[in-house]
């Protein structure tokens, strides 16, 4: 079990939420920050440790979001902070493509070791998840000489122009912000809760493949992007056999199979990468979010012959893989291995199953609870139906936040309650947070 925590791992409220200092900051923020950067809860944070955030008013809040799956190893890890500080005092920037440095190479070596696939792998490091996805598109197009790109329904791949086009839902990510690039296609996925009863993973894959053949053409497609567990899409876990069938189809047709592991990767799902829960081997993998304990870093890793198809200078960027972020990432990798955090994610999965696994049978407003590792979702429905209930979800999130529990929303209909806690979260905190949420579930189910 991991290290000690600088903040006691318990919820403790000393003011109402948001408290007076948060409200004061919020007024200043409204005068200076674009409304386009919306917030889930207007509680301003000061520091944190493990699974607890402490706000500017001194409230200790249970964080079941991790800033959308970033602080997987816990908030403000002291060893990561020390590694970053040490590097910041030594060298902060040279630009790897001008004069290189070892940290970048070491991160690429580690990624080659931990990403699935028994073949030579090369990486490029960039700043954000969207930038990683953009680069994967560029690399796949360059390698195949094809242009079309497919992403799954309910996918989230980012907020840049290209990745917006690959992101499924129009609101709020895309609305009013086109034109979007062409040759981007959204194809059906496997969503067991919403698919026809009994549809298997292989059948769902055949539906995806048929759509590709009839709308795009298999020989036109450069790459198929999948999130093995969809994050923003609502913790959607396709039926067994889905990804294996798609990977076979991609191999047979010269299509680059890309696993976007930006949210589910780096120990979160109870494996280094969530595609490992299937038998599919991706050609390229994108990594970001949890990789560097909160420092901006992202990567594309994959088959050497694909990654090397790009001409020198064809990919890169000023800050990509900067010395401080890579120093943080190397420490994150070390901690995950030393402290057994993949097993900790599996422990969190068991704790969630045990504590909230029966919500669908207890609360008529819950349609299904599902998840892997420290990645869970609950479908919030109109009682007794499978119809999405976004108002219900909003009420749950607001109730939780007002009581010191941060939970996330997700899903194409804004109706999936999403949990992405740190893998170091205790059973006691899971129980306490669940009790808070259940107050609202009971009310909405009555
Ligand atoms: C968050 C996310 C992205 C985008 O990452 P940013 O760092 O926000 O650009 C892309 N894909 C998935 C699956 C994500 O969860």
TrEMBL record:
Cofactor(s) needed: pyridoxal 5'-phosphate
GO molecular function terms listed in the Swiss-Prot or TrEMBL record: (S)-3-amino-2-methylpropionate transaminase activity; 4-aminobutyrate:2-oxoglutarate transaminase activity; identical protein binding; pyridoxal phosphate binding
Coiled coil, from the record: none
Keyword line: Aminotransferase, Pyridoxal phosphate, Transferase
EC number: 2.6.1.19, 2.6.1.22
EC main group: transferase
Catalytic activity: (S)-3-amino-2-methylpropanoate + 2-oxoglutarate = 2-methyl-3-oxopropanoate + L-glutamate; 4-aminobutanoate + 2-oxoglutarate = succinate semialdehyde + L-glutamate
Pathway recorded for this protein: Amino-acid degradation; 4-aminobutanoate degradation
InterPro entries recorded: Aminotrans_3, Aminotrans_3_PPA_site, Class-III_PLP-dep_AT, PyrdxlP-dep_Trfase, PyrdxlP-dep_Trfase_major, PyrdxlP-dep_Trfase_small
Family the UniProt entry places it in: Belongs to the class-III pyridoxal-phosphate-dependent aminotransferase family.
Protein name in UniProt: (S)-3-amino-2-methylpropionate transaminase
Lineage, broadest ranks: Bacteria, Bacillati, Actinomycetota, Actinomycetes, Micrococcales
């Amino acid at each position: 079990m991991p290290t000690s925590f600088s903040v006691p791992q318990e919820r403790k409220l000393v003011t109402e939420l948001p408290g007076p200092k948060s409200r004061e900051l919020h007024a200043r923020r409204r005068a200076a920050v674009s409304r386009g950067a919306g917030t889930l809860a207007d509680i301003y944070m000061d520091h944190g440790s493990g699974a607890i955030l402490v706000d500017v008013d001194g409230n200790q809040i249970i964080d079941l979001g991790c800033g959308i799956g970033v602080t997987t190893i816990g908030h403000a890890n002291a060893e990561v902070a020390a590694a970053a500080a040490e590097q910041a005092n030594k060298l902060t920037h040279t630009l790897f493509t001008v004069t290189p440095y070892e940290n970048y190479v070491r991160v690429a070596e580690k990624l080659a070791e931990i990403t699935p696939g028994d073949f030579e792998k090369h990486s490029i490091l960039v700043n954000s998840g969207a930038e990683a996805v953009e680069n994967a598109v560029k690399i796949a197009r360059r390698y195949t000489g094809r242009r079309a790109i497919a992403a799954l329904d309910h996918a989230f791949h980012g907020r840049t122009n290209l990745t917006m086009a690959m992101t499924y839902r129009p609101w709020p990510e895309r609305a009013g912000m086109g034109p979007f690039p062409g040759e981007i296609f959204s194809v059906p996925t496997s969503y067991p809760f919403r698919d026809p009863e009994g549809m298997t993973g292989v059948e769902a894959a055949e539906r995806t493949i048929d759509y590709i053949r009839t709308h795009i053409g298999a020989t036109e497609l450069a790459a198929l992007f999948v999130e093995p567990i969809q994050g923003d899409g609502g913790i959607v876990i396709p039926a067994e056999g889905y990804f294996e069938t798609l990977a076979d189809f991609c191999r047979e047709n010269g299509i680059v199979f890309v696993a976007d592991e930006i949210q589910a990767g780096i120990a979160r799902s109870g494996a280094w990468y969530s595609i490992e829960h299937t038998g599919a081997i991706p050609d390229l993998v994108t990594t970001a979010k949890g990789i560097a304990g909160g420092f901006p870093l992202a990567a594309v890793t994959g088959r050497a012959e694909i990654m090397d198809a790009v001409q020198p200078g064809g990919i890169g960027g000023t800050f990509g893989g900067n010395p401080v972020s890579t120093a943080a990432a190397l420490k994150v990798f070390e901690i995950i291995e030393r402290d057994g955090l993949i097993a900790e994610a599996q422990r969190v999965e068991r704790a969630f199953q045990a504590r909230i696994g029966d919500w669908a049978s207890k609360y008529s407003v819950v349609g299904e609870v599902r998840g892997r590792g420290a990645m869970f979702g609950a479908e919030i429905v109109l009682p007794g139906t499978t119809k999405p209930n976004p108002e219900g979800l909003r009420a749950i999130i607001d109730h939780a936040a007002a009581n010191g529990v941060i939970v996330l929303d997700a899903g194409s209909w804004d109706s999936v309650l999403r949990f992405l806690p740190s893998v170091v979260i205790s059973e006691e905190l899971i129980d306490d947070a669940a009790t808070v949420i259940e107050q609202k579930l009971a009310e909405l189910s009555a």
